[in-house]
Amino acid sequence: MSQQYALAAHKANHTLGCNNGSVASRSREVILPLYSALVRRHPEYCIQLWGSQHKKDMDLLKQVQRRATKMIRGLEHLSYKDRLRELGLFSLEKRRLRGDLIAAFQYLKRAYRRDGEGLFIRECSNRKRDKGLKLRDLD
Q1: Is 57 exposed, middle or buried (0-12, 13-18, 19+ CB in 10 A)?
Q2: pTM higher than 0.85, yes or no?
Q3: What superkingdom heads the lineage (predicted)?
Q4: Closest to 138 measured CA to CA, from 122, 98, 116
Q5: Alpha-carbon span 139 to 1, nearest angstrom
Q6: Res 40 pLDDT > 90
């Protein structure tokens, strides 16, 4: 499992480094959207696999978020938790907990149906390339 974490951290750090070298501004309005769009997806890919036995792997992924928040001008002197609070971001642990709670809520609302029953409906369309299957809202 450590290889997967190391690969995700490497990709995120590489993307963060590319952003660091190519963007002159260190303002929150520039760095935060770049981080959210390009970098954050790599550590989030692995957070669903976290367990208490993977402490070093968790720290490896947290280091990416720490590095990204330190890049923003004016927040370098703050602690990691204060930087997250100032930017309106959550730690990776809280994002994992949020994902788990959403999955549990969807399960309780019967969003996960047996064998995908009722997930697709057939619709007629005037478009030539349309397959005719659309995802149905599960409300």
Answers
A1: buried
A2: no
A3: Eukaryota
A4: 116
A5: 37
A6: no
